[in-house]
Amino acid sequence: MDLGLSGRRAAIAAASSGLGLATARALAAEGVHVAICGRDPERLRRAAASLGENAHAIEADVSTPDGAIGFIHHAQEALGSVDILVTNAGGPPAGDFTSTDLDAYLPALELNLLSVVAMCQAAVPPMRRRGWGRVLAITSIAVRQPIPGLILSNTARAGATGFLKTLALEVAEDGVTVNSLLPGSHETPRLQALHDGDLSQAAEQIPMRRLGDPAAFGAYAAFLCSDHASFVTGTATPIDGGTYSALL
Fold this sequence. Notes:
By secondary structure, this protein is α/β, with parallel strands linked by helices. The protein contains 8 helices and 7 strands, in the order E-H-E-H-E-H-E-H-E-H-E-H-H-H-E. It has a 7-stranded parallel β-sheet, with helices on both faces. Strand 2 (about 35-40), helix 2 (about 40-50) and strand 3 (about 55-60) form a beta-alpha-beta unit.
């Protein structure tokens, strides 16, 4: 299926590996010019090289609002404009209510909530003026089903989901869609690090008894950025192999 994205321009945050890179790869395969960011210069260079000649590497840290805005401004300069924004970031430290100090909440909110707001504030107004745009946030299944021991991530990502839903309603008539994807466990370097390379236990906790394929995740993300999905906005879709088990 031709997604009709050839020639579009996308800024994908935290895309030097994992689901961010998988999304960038799927978009690049559709002819999208992509700008990706990361904090590790060498890993970022390798990732951009793997995406082809229409990829731009921007060294940036989106864990703060200033860093997030800076990434979008550099992407706009490199690409000429940004039609597609994919927000993404790593997760804050683990912890529960008892073990997590109040001081830990602000950095978590900056990482997983305020960075999303900042990137949208920088990228969405030009989309509205042009009458076409896509915002796609990679968050976590934790916004539907809080994950024990990840109180900071559960809190911040739920806030981001509320912001994105509100934004979707405000910009819908301007041709800009806003959606989020809620990944469960996918076979990424981060998950391998969390499980010391042994992912069998993580797979057993998923109804499908297997981990998610980042390439399949990227393909679904690219579809949501296409004209075929132009009537889809305000959604928060689990991609988790059935882990989320509630009716709604």
